[in-house]
Amino acid sequence: xxxxxxxxxxxxxxxxxxxxxxxxxxxxxxxxxxxxxxxxxxxxxxxxxxxxxxxxxxxxxxxxxxxxxxxxxxxxxxxxxxxxxxxxxxxxxxxxxxxxxxxxxxxxxxxxxxxxxxxxxxxxxxxxxxxxxxxxxxxxxxxxxxxxxxxxxxxxxxxxxxxxxxxxxxxxxxxxxxxxxxxxxxxxxxxxxxxxxxxxxx
Amino acid sequence: xxxxxxxxxxxxxxxxxxxxxxxxxxxxxxxxxxxxxxxxxxxxxxxxxxxxxxxxxxxxxxxxxxxxxxxxxxxxxxxxxxxxxxxxxxxxxxxxxxxxxxxxxxxxxxxxxxxxxxxxxxxxxxxxxxxxxxxxxxxxxxxxxxxxxxxxxxxxxxxxxxxxxxxxxxxxxxxxxxxxxxxxxxxxxxxxxxxxxxxxxx
Amino acid sequence: xxxxxxxxxxxxxxxxxxxxxxxxxxxxxxxxxxxxxxxxxxxxxxxxxxxxxxxxxxxxxxxxxxxxxxxxxxxxxxxxxxxxxxxxxxxxxxxxxxxxxxxxxxxxxxxxxxxxxxxxxxxxxxxxxxxxxxxxxxxxxxxxxxxxxxxxxxxxxxxxxxxxxxxxxxxxxxxxxxxxxxxxxxxxxxxxxxxxxxxxxx
Amino acid sequence: xxxxxxxxxxxxxxxxxxxxxxxxxxxxxxxxxxxxxxxxxxxxxxxxxxxxxxxxxxxxxxxxxxxxxxxxxxxxxxxxxxxxxxxxxxxxxxxxxxxxxxxxxxxxxxxxxxxxxxxxxxxxxxxxxxxxxxxxxxxxxxxxxxxxxxxxxxxxxxxxxxxxxxxxxxxxxxxxxxxxxxxxxxxxxxxxxxxxxxxxxx
Lengths: 202, 202, 202, 202
Description:
The structure is a homotetramer. Chain A has helices at 18-32, 61-70, 87-97, 128-142, 165-189; strands spanning 2-7, 36-41, 73-81, 84-85, 115-121, 151-154. By secondary structure, chain A is an alpha/beta fold. Chain A has one domain (2-198): 3-Layer(aba) Sandwich (Rossmann fold). Chain A is globular and about 45 Å long.
């Protein structure tokens, strides 16, 4: 299996941001469970604004999209500013929107049988939920399947009395990551059936 | 299999609202595919405000919750007012929140292996997306799994040039309903594994 | 001047919830500045679900609405559950929606020249922003004017290194409350002009 | 008086998008009422991602920010994709966030006494409300004042039976624009008082 991990931090990739640390926790689990991992720090790439699905631009989008197309799992990680996901994640969701009506070889949506998830680093902001719900919703409507607790929200408020903050966050990231893997494994052998999905039945 | 369909309309149940019509389209498909259906018009029941998980109140919540607990699929249908879901759906999500930390007999979240979906009747408002994303997100975080396109959004804007509005809406409801059924069927034989989920692994 | 303070807590009024404490901070400032204050704990009243503007129901809504109609300032206070305002606040916004098309004696929207604000108690949840933005937006579209920082968000994340949590929250509540008063004072002598607002100009 | 109108369309400026047409309706009113207008098509400028308030980057942000600083009114116009504002508007809000803690010469927030508004072109999407509420909220929390109906939402659903769609939209844009002007005029002679706002009072 294969997972693509996109870091939507606004800072260039040479800094150890909290978002990167959280994504790293997830990546370690993926690797331990023998899932191939592609990590992409979006800010280090040139990706044009737009919703089109044309692939003939001269930016780095085709490189990234090819990886998403081959992956079983897509994980978006974002910092939060005033209750919103980063504008880079917003840009990526717009680009993916361009494929909304495209189908796979079975006539299903292009992202069917792929599993989606998100890490939302809301520390220092408190608006993680607003950001998370917009990402989770859009992945779902793009055709991804969302396993239970597909969004690892990281707020100070999630710290339990009996655990350090970091332990607690690791807990949420771990639950999310394993649920992504479990669903991807189930779909590997039991994909969503095609028949009724193609809207051709009476 | 068994599906619970909750109608969150603000009007009492003796009127043929659009929300009811859309839910009926979905119910017809469930029945055709031999899924047992429980339809509940929430406005006709007395459900107290609150987040607690205590079941000893004297309202109708225990009756409704028992049905949700036994179901494989939970479908929430709501009208939209100024971009928001109805306050009755909001009330139901608060009640479900009370079970957030409870576990099933395997040690997983209480709603694991259940499939969630929503019908959002945004006609006459235009705010269906805002309402939909808050419901989809909360079902996911409560432990439900969301199949592709788990939210059937009904806006005039979804009408295609070549189809009547009603045909178009039926299309979205059908896609959503079949995806709910497909995921529930997959989980019937291939439930989410327990091991890593219980947070007991090292 | 006159302010109506609505507490949207899910608990009945005999408990000293955080939401109540925060609202109390605001009430103290209103009184100090000689603004008449009406405090209403919504959970203690019987308010039916619905969007209609008919006032002939047999619930307590007419009592509450008369107070809002006479007030210069409307302040809604809410706890947060999973990133959402309380269902009681949702219910109140639906009821207010019923007056959306009604006009005052000058032909302006019914809530023109009234100032709106909100206290969002997100402690223990982290979803205050999502709740706040939906309330602020709806007050604005209902015709209320929103002064700067009209929403006092209370998250642990707002605590500064140099202040206790409670000091910090008092700061936000105070800023919000004074801005409500300032705008209401300005409007007392300089209301929004009528002419172009009535949509009758060419 | 002076208004800055930012077009957040994803397409470069040589196309007559709906968003541009709506913004043009607003600009005509501003000019008729002798408000100086600066129109900026954001996609034609190079603006880096980031939240910092440092002005020493080599992008076009300082040019745009100087105009916002001098203006009495800021109007953001955005298309909608799947219920969300454009990523360019998201980027602008992040840039403005960098000034969140900065003060004007009176010790108030930098954007105090400025009026904010938004045009949300939701045609073809239906998610205008979700986009609008996130913009309205963030302008408010940045220190802008929001007049009644500060957001002109353009959905097919807003078309009244007795009017063409375009007439109806013009109505909303006109209401919004005049309310922006009215508030800016009021603030010109009656700005928000400083005293209690600086958080220095006991």
